[in-house]
Amino acid sequence: MGAISTLLRSRHAAAAVTLAILLLLFFLLKHLAKIPDYIVPPLSAILSEYAHRRDYYALHAAYTLLEAVAGLAVASLLGACLGIWAGAIAGTGSVVLLIATAIQTIPIVAFAPLMIVWLGNGTASKVALVSVMCLFPVVVNVARGIRSVPAAEKDLVRVFGGSAFQAFSILQLPRGIAALAQAVRLIAPMAMLAAIVAEYAGADRGLGYVIVQAAYRLDTAVLFAAVGVSALSGVVMFWAVKSVEGLVRSRWRLP
């Protein structure tokens, strides 16, 4: 009993147990309410579908994860540059944030067809859409981190003979990097979602493609299996980014 209690106290184990209980309650409700299998398939059918074609789901999940990671990387790099510009150069912040806000308010379903028209039906259009959807939080977070340094601290660096660039590199840049790491962790699931939505608009591979094809055929077992794989992929991506964030913070001693 002691080992079980220790295991349950773990946050990861508690989350897994909670998810399992919710799933069991959901399918129990389906059974009690006598919902037809063509609307909500039984859990056994979903697990059987995944077990028989796990390589198929793994392949399509890998494509979607590649698009999400690549788009997240582009958004992080571009967003960091714009955020530093907005936070460090007086008078430019409002303009950069206004442009980023305008882009963020455009519906993703409107952007997806445009990206396919401009960049084709391949991976490039999906990566571009993920980058656009993830850009705004990165810009805002980095700019906020850069601006979070009190003026008194920057003045102290100058008092000891430091230049404006040294004050930026010693005080502002580390906080901007810390803010960037936090933003990337928070938007990692958004990147996965954007990649799947981009595949809805036109793709021949990826989890979005699998979901659309299953919906056309009304194959709910495949639909539920693909949704489950999508959710699991998003969680994996989140924890991977969080682990990288921890390494970066410890390596550079970020705040």
Written overview of the protein:
- This protein is mainly α and 255 residues long.
- It folds into two domains: 1-35; 41-252, MetI-like fold (Orthogonal Bundle), CATH 1.10.3720.
- It has eleven helices and no strands.
- It has helices at residues 2-9, 11-32, 43-52, 54-88, 93-105, 108-119, 123-147, 151-159, 164-201, 207-217, 220-252.
- Helix 4 packs across helix 10 (207-217), helix 8 (151-159) packs across helix 9 (164-201) and helix 10 (207-217) runs antiparallel to helix 11 (220-252).
How would you summarize this macromolecular structure in one to three sentences?
The chain is an all-alpha fold and 255 residues long. The chain has eleven helices and no strands. The chain is elongated and about 75 Å long.
